[in-house]
Amino acid sequence: MTISMYQASVPRFVNILGNVSNILDKAQAHAEAKKIDPLILTSCRLFPDMLPMYTQIIIACDTAKGLVARLAGVEIPVYEDNEKSLVELKARVAKTIAFIQTISAAQIDGTEDKEIITKRGDKETHYKGMQFLLGHAIPNFYFHITAAYSILRHNGVEIGKRDFLGNP
Asked: CA–CA separation, 37 vs 122, rounded Å?
């Protein structure tokens, strides 16, 4: 049995981003119960040279929509990248889920060898579709989701492994 490029991407991203949305709800409830300004939670970092929690969520969403759009051969939606509150981050997650759910399996399956080029500044990186999915996008997505989860957990939000994994 083989697994499709679509099955390895869209449903997994939708599942985890849905879990993130639930985690953000728990963070909001925590902030309200403890009378903490939610912007304090979203601005926290695990270490001074790391990005704040809100940026971790932004990057995870960008990774999901960027991968799916590149594989499907459609324009990557551009978001403003100005979300800082839990409510704004939750809206970004919802917008990302809504976009990636517009892409069908037929648009992604068969893209294992598709040429993918990413640019960061002057640097271009060349991938094949499968390499980009498994070697870059998925690890990057989980890295940033894990960082956001860890920041919230470190700051007392009562979340655990089940919140992270949900019901795959």
From this structure: 39
